User: Which sequence fits this backbone?
């Protein structure tokens, strides 16, 4: 389950956004809602967040500024903008900060649902890449540890050169004896 926050300054709209979908069925848990960008960034800096659904025009820090800040300090967080404004500059900013979708108000259910599915796919893609990176780092650490153990065993006379070469070969290190 990925963690989503909603940032919308209109209280009624904020409530509607939390209820419009069965969020869990598409893989999101709404962990917090905010009515301004400053509170949202404060939360993001303290707690893990995977995705943000935000209005563009919100108090203190705009949705665009929020995306810009996160683009730099939390680049794995994905965004969807919602706005009553069909403004090309807003859309261009969305592209610049890797925003997944730009949904205009009034929001239709199908458009909103499709946007949230795309958001899920993008967040999941980031998560999969991160998991692969973590596994690769673990494997590299294990190989480095094994290499060190084998070399130490050889230096201490516990294993001979042929055994060392065989062990190193098993972990993908080929040694040329010439």
Assistant:
């Amino acid at each position: 389950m990925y963690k989503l926050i909603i940032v919308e300054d209109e209280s009624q709209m904020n409530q509607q956004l939390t209820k419009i979908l069965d969020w869990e069925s598409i893989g999101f848990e709404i962990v917090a809602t905010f009515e301004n960008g400053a509170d949202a960034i404060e939360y993001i800096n303290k707690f893990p967040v995977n995705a943000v659904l935000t209005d563009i025009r919100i108090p203190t820090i705009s949705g665009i500024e929020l995306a810009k800040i996160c683009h730099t300090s939390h680049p794995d967080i994905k965004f969807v903008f919602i706005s009553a404004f069909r403004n090309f500059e807003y859309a261009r900013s969305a592209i610049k900060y890797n925003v997944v979708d730009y949904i205009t108000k009034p929001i239709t259910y199908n458009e909103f649902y499709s946007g949230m599915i795309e958001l899920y796919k993008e967040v999941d893609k980031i998560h999969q890449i991160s998991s692969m990176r973590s596994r690769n780092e673990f494997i590299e650490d294990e190989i480095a540890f094994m290499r060190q153990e084998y070399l130490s065993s050889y230096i201490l006379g516990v294993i001979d050169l042929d055994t060392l070469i065989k062990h190193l070969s098993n972990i993908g290190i080929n040694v040329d004896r010439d």
